């Protein structure tokens, strides 16, 4: 049993003022593996005061100094890869290979931000004006459990690259991994107050951050429901916001697609991160003429998916993170059946022999119509909706027919045609004939209720800066 009774303020580990506790439960076994002492609004005040005090000096550091810090953060996170992987797997249950890949990306995020600084123009000329891009101030960072320290690292990397200081609230379900990450941050030797971390619930610590008058920007990743609440809170002091929210992404199989390639990709796209991925392509749109072939391949592919012990290298779907998440997914599976969709694979309950953890059956519904709840709402588990279309136009309409617009996928052999379809999809990221991004510094974020603003690379950096236009009385450039 691990006890986490410390948070990180002004360069030091301190005991939180808050007294509430949270139990960390291993989702693969339902055994309590840790207890966390949570912070409260007073802890947030202390953290913000430290970040405020550090800001004037940190905002004036030059690019080379911040690049050196980013390098040190990369090295510190990389050095603890094994510990981060272990904590995440015990606490979150994501399969080994995925966890290692995400941990490597977490470390790399610091180098990517360092590289972005290489070419980023902090000073620009617009006619007779000089425009300086200035760091916004203290950033409030709030993360979800499905990619907790990966997002903490990428968000911190951007804040530091911009010259901002930060107050961080990790997911309360992720305290053990955060505890290791804090040791990495401490080892990197940042100036005191640049990064401050307060464990706590959304209702207490999250609300204290999003409503804090001394915080200039909220960088939030999580559900659309909480994103709306943060936007409301932020409006009180006109905070800037970067909101990375939910999704219900479509995967369009065009009629010329190579199904031997497209269907394994479709399964990976739908079930990545045990189905707990914001970018999961959970609506598979298939031409009616190829429905039979798709059903057959899909059934074969899903039957081969291994659900179970996340430490087993063959496992691709681990447990869901919590009982709440398990119940939520079960509710949607029952709802799909009640709405008239037909089960092709999976269904309610645990896979046989896996009743001891929050495991669910990889599930595929067919005969799903676009207006069904399971085709409209984010389920956040390994549940795929198979839908059919008659014309390309109809496929595009169905794909764009939700409140979300985070990601979209297209498979087809005629690339110019696939690109034409991609151009009409209302989504922040469209991948053609692939499951994963090929460019980690490309802007990431959503259209519509999938978010506001963009992360990563120059677009992410720009979101942490405010343009200031300077002109002098001679009208000449200084
Ligand atoms: P969530 O919205 O419930 O919680 C996210 C974070 O917000 C947690 O740290 C939580 O404690 C905090 N929070 C909760 N209530 C709050 C409040 N009132 N004020 C401030 N903070 C509050 O989301 P989750 O269940 O942790 O994560 C799953 C969701 O995250 C899914 O909807 C998923 O799509 C989304 N997500 C989006 C992206 C993206 O990049 N778009 C990436 C990962 C996850």
Walk me through this protein's architecture.
The longest helix has 24 residues, at 96-119. This protein has helices at residues 41-59, 63-79, 81-91, 96-119, 148-162, 175-187, 202-210, 224-235, 259-271, 291-303, 323-339, 373-376, 392-399, 415-423, 457-462; strands spanning 2-4, 7-9, 12-14, 21-26, 31-37, 123-126, 129-135, 138-142, 165-169, 195-197, 217-221, 240-244, 249-253, 281-287, 342-345, 363-366, 383-389, 407-411, 429-432, 451-452, 465-470. Strand 11 (217-221), helix 8 and strand 12 (240-244) form a beta-alpha-beta unit. 40% of the residues lie in helices and 21% in strands. By secondary structure, the protein is of the alpha/beta class. It folds into two domains: 2-245 and 446-469, Aldehyde Dehydrogenase, Chain A, domain 1 (3-Layer(aba) Sandwich); 250-432, Aldehyde Dehydrogenase, Chain A, domain 2, CATH 3.40.309.10. The strands form five sheets. A seven-stranded mixed β-sheet has the order 15-16-17-14-13-18-19, with helices on both faces. Nicotinamide-adenine-dinucleotide binds next to helix 7 and helix 8. Nicotinamide-adenine-dinucleotide binds at residues 142-147, 169, 171-172, 201-203, 206-207, 210, 221-223, 226, 229-230, 244-247, 278, 378, 380, 406, 446, 451.
Note the main attributes of this structure:
binds nicotinamide-adenine-dinucleotide; six-stranded mixed sheet; seven-stranded mixed sheet; globular; Aldehyde Dehydrogenase, Chain A, domain 1
